[in-house]
């Protein structure tokens, strides 16, 4: 049986974890997995993972066979698991590549009463993000100080604008880290100019992609200010534009329009904003079409799978929606937001 090493800190996590070798047999599990399954870890090691599926073992075996180094994490809903020496269990399983085998995260369905676990980050990822946020604070403070010193030394307007961009992005990252470490209620919405938000996103895109990508503005100049969170919208739109860059787009268009009498979900709105990010990149892979907004789902091996999930969350915070249509060479992400008058939040 292959000797697959455990994930880092596996036994310190409360999330049940098991991992297999290349042959699909369980190489090890953490204490949380053994306790949850109701048997000692020695009773688990060596068994084919699929043999624990008391419902459709062929489904689990097929899923394990599909996981490779370059595939995105795969989720199986409500898997019926049972060890011969223990009672049956039900869980949603997340399968991802681990060494030559597969890492399995088990999320018991009764841990998420009334909620769709697809909308929640796995507990292990949440803990990792908080640890990373804590470690990043000092480097960000150093970057902020360096940007301030650099700002005193440069004299031309173009260089000063770049320094201000660095300083602003460092401040935005610091605020995001604070939110991860000490979650707070959402900030009240304030009057914003959506084109100022888009211009900030374009400056980030120009700094990231340089001349490799043509950026096109297609703005409706009649758009009034409306109530929203400029930082959160910047974060969401930058994720959409960055995805287009990473999909190999040669041209990215940012389009704004006013819509009247638009229905978003079940709610009708007299005036709404339609924002579209249009690119000519590779498009959304067909196999990810139904899962593209789920956390941890990415079409790139190095991707985190968090950008689109976050963008959708920002849309919901503004009582809006995010959708897309895609084919190779033409992808459009559409963000619809009700335009609440700025005076209503003053």
From TrEMBL:
Classification via InterPro entries: HATPase_C_sf (IPR036890), HATPase_dom (IPR003594), His_kinase_dom (IPR005467), HisK_dim/P_dom (IPR003661), HisK_dim/P_sf (IPR036097), PAS-like_dom_sf (IPR035965), PAS_4 (IPR013656), Sig_transdc_His_kin-like_C (IPR004358)
Domain Histidine kinase as annotated: residue spans: 131-341
Domain of life where this protein originates: Bacteria
UniProt key word Kinase: yes
Catalytic activity: ATP + protein L-histidine = ADP + protein N-phospho-L-histidine
EC code: 2.7.13.3
SMART domains: HATPase_c (SM00387), HisKA (SM00388)
SUPFAM superfamilies found in the cross-reference section: ATPase domain of HSP90 chaperone/DNA topoisomerase II/histidine kinase, Homodimeric domain of signal transducing histidine kinase, PYP-like sensor domain (PAS domain)
PANTHER family associated with the record: SENSOR HISTIDINE KINASE, SENSORY HISTIDINE KINASE_PHOSPHATASE NTRB
Protein name, as recorded: histidine kinase
Organism of this sequence: Lysobacter spongiicola DSM 21749
């Amino acid at each position: 049986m292959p000797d697959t090493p455990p994930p880092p800190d596996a036994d310190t996590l409360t999330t049940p974890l098991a991992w297999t070798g290349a042959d699909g047999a369980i190489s090890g599990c953490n204490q949380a997995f053994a306790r949850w399954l109701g048997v000692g870890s020695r009773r688990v090691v060596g068994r084919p993972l699929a043999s624990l599926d008391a419902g459709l073992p062929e489904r689990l075996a097929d899923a394990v066979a599909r996981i490779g180094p370059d595939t995105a994490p795969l989720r199986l809903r409500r898997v019926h698991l049972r060890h011969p020496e223990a009672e049956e269990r039900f869980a949603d399983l997340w399968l991802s590549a681990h060494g030559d085998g597969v890492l399995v995260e088990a999320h018991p369905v009764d841990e998420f009463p009334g909620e769709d676990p697809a909308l929640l980050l796995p507990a292990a990822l949440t803990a990792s993000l908080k640890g990373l946020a804590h470690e990043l604070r000092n480097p960000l403070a150093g970057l902020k100080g360096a940007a301030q010193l650099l700002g005193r030394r440069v004299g031309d307007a173009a260089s000063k604008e770049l320094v201000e961009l660095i300083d602003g992005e460092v401040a935005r990252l610091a605020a995001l880290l604070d939110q991860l470490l000490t979650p707070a209620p959402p900030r009240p919405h304030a009057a914003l100019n959506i084109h100022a938000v888009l211009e900030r996103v374009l400056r980030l895109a120009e700094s990231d992609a340089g001349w490799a990508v043509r950026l096109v503005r297609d703005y409706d100049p009649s758009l009034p200010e409306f109530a929203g969170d400029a930082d959160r919208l910047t974060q969401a739109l930058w994720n959409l534009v960055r995805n287009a860059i990473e999909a190999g787009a040669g041209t990215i268009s940012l389009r704004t329009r006013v819509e009247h009498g638009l229905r978003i979900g079940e709610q009708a709105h007299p005036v709404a904003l339609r924002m579209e990010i249009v690119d000519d990149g590779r498009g959304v892979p067909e196999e990810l079409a139904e899962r593209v907004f789920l956390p941890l789902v990415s079409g790139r091996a190095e991707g985190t799978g968090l950008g689109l999930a976050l963008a959708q969350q920002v849309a919901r915070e503004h009582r809006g929606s995010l959708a897309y249509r895609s084919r190779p060479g033409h992808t459009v992400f559409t963000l619809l937001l009700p335009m609440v008058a700025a005076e209503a939040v003053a």
